[in-house]
């Protein structure tokens, strides 16, 4: 399968190679996860460590798996033991079951079995859905807060604590849309406070990342800042001088508001579907006018006394007379 990369170009994205000698299928007996430092967050199926260990011991084992080898530069996150006894600690008796590596601007994962649906037995999607949601989140790259033709920039949120480092990620392209290749050019992040540069952070290029550079800044005091990128070999300084990403440094910040974004299109769709309206924060005064008919309305209750209205009284007497006539005719009286 996928032995010819010219016919099957997807082969170059996979982090594994199939063993040519030996059986094509093996029957695993237990899951085995690497040391704590190399464990994937997607494999945390329960927030309590002890309970998570028990979950992995009782998850249904796949019926078979293909013998593969992890390619250089890839990481093994999950293995299966092919020994017939209990979980074997010998690497000779284990084969990779979940392997990942960087592939272009994203990541590539290989899962050696297709029986995770069996994890739904008696617990529905408790573990099955959590596993796949977490794995897909790991594969996807975090979005950039600012995107331009040659530059994408992100600082991990709009508000940061002064006690923590601020991560800086930037993806660069030249005028032809090509990513820089090793040896990587000099790329710096400039931290601005008002009109002054208060810090210059050298960024390091990452291999197999499709033009991604990263760094971290520490020691900023409380206040409002902006970050811009200086890369003379790639970017035109005049064109990128105004492309600054603002952020703030605050003490005792609320972490829940750090990554909030406003999807106006989605909010408008929700408002229209529910018969409501969408208002921006700066237009909150319009909300008062919309709610005025509801808040200032009056409820008027009118009572009609049937015995004081000849029309209603006549109708009631007529219906009662019909009932008496029908009952007497059928012998019910």
Describe the fold and architecture.
This protein has 333 residues and is α+β, with helices and mostly antiparallel strands. The protein has 4 domains: 131 residues, 3-Layer(aba) Sandwich (Rossmann fold); 112 residues, Immunoglobulin-like, CATH 2.60.40.1930; 32 residues, no CATH class; 32 residues. It is built from 6 helices and 16 strands. The strands form 4 sheets. The protein has a 5-stranded antiparallel β-sheet, with no helix packed on it. The longest helix is centred in the last third of the chain and has 20 residues. It is flat and about 105 Å long. The termini are far apart. About 2% of the residues have low confidence.
Strand and helix layout:
Elements (H helix, E strand, L loop, with lengths): L15 E3 L11 E3 L16 H10 L9 E3 L4 E7 L12 E10 L2 E6 L16 H12 L6 E2 L3 E4 L4 E2 L5 E7 L15 E6 L2 E7 L1 E2 L6 E6 L5 E8 L6 H4 L4 E5 L14 H10 L10 H12 L14 H20 L4
Parallel strand pairs: 9-16
Antiparallel strand pairs: 1-3, 2-4, 4-5, 5-6, 7-8, 8-10, 10-14, 11-12, 11-15, 13-14, 15-16
| Widest beta sheet: strand line-up | 7-8-10-14-13
Tertiary shape: flat
Contiguous runs where pLDDT drops below 50 for at least 5 residues: 84-88
Cα gyration radius (Å): 33 Å
- Strand tally is 16
**What percent of residues are in strands?**
15-25%
Say what the CATH topology of the largest domain is.
Rossmann fold
Tell me, rounded to a whole number, the average pLDDT: 81
Number of helices: 6
Quick one: CATH superfamily of the largest domain? Class I glutamine amidotransferase (GATase) domain
Helix content: 10-25%
Roughly how many Å apart are the termini? 90 Å
CATH class of the largest domain: Alpha Beta
Give the SSE order as H and E letters.
EEHEEEEHEEEEEEEEEHEHHH
Main β sheet profile:
5 strands, antiparallel
Q: What structural class results from the helix and strand content?
A: alpha+beta
Q: What would you say the CATH architecture of the largest domain is?
A: 3-Layer(aba) Sandwich
Q: Give the domain tally.
A: 4
């Amino acid at each position: 399968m996928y032995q010819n990369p010219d016919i099957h170009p997807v082969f170059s994205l996979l982090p594994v190679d199939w063993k040519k000698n030996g059986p094509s299928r093996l029957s695993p007996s237990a899951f085995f996860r690497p040391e704590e430092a190399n464990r994937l967050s997607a494999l945390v199926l329960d927030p309590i460590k002890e309970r998570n260990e028990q979950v992995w011991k009782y998850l249904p084992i796949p019926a078979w798996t293909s013998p593969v080898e992890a390619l250089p530069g890839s990481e093994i996150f999950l293995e299966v033991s092919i020994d017939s006894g209990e979980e074997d600690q010998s690497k000779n008796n284990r084969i990779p079951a979940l392997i990942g590596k960087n592939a272009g601007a994203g990541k590539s994962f290989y899962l050696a079995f297709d029986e995770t649906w069996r994890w739904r037995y008696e617990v529905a999607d408790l573990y099955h859905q959590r596993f796949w949601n977490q794995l897909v989140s790991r594969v996807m790259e975090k979005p950039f807060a600012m995107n331009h033709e040659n530059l994408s920039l992100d600082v991990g949120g709009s508000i940061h604590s002064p006690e923590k480092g601020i991560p800086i990620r930037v993806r660069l392209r030249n005028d032809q849309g090509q990513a820089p290749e090793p040896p990587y050019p000099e790329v710096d992040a400039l931290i601005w406070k008002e009109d002054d540069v208060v810090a210059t952070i050298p960024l390091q290029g990452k291999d197999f990342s499709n033009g991604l550079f990263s760094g971290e800044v520490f020691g900023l005091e409380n206040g409002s800042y902006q970050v811009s990128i200086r890369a003379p070999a790639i970017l035109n300084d005049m064109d990128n001088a105004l492309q600054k990403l603002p952020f703030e440094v605050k003490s005792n910040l609320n972490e829940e508001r750090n990554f909030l974004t406003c999807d106006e299109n989605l909010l408008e769709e929700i408002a229209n579907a529910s018969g409501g309206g969408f208002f921006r924060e700066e237009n909150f005064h319009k909300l008062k006018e919309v709610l005025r008919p509801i808040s200032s309305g009056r409820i008027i209750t009118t009572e009609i006394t049937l015995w004081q209205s000849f029309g209603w009284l006549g109708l009631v007497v007529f219906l009662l007379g019909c009932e008496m006539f029908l009952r007497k005719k059928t012998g019910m009286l």
